[in-house]
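Lay summary. Proteins are chains of building blocks that fold into shapes, and those shapes determine what they do. In this project we predict the shape from the chain. Here is one chain we studied, written as its sequence of building blocks.
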Amino acid sequence: MRRSECAGSARGDRHSPGRKNLQYAARYDETAVFSSDQTNWQTATTSGSLNYMNTNERHPFTAQYTGGYTWTLTGRTTNPDSFTNFF
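And here is the predicted shape, written in a compact code that computers can read:
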């Protein structure tokens, strides 16, 4: 299995009211299964997440979003699949 990830964060202007925070991550995964009965297959998945928080007293706001996409590289074919989550 191969896996890589990139992540970071940022903060808002210190002079604006309320604290702001942004965090993000991007990921890539590959999974391979090898079997003696010819059912070898390999998939890849890309995904990411984004989190934002504002602690302004008058207008507080928080948002989280995650999503990604999975597809077959070799072997048994499955339909590509995407996923998202926002709250």
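What the prediction tells us: The radius of gyration is 19 Å.
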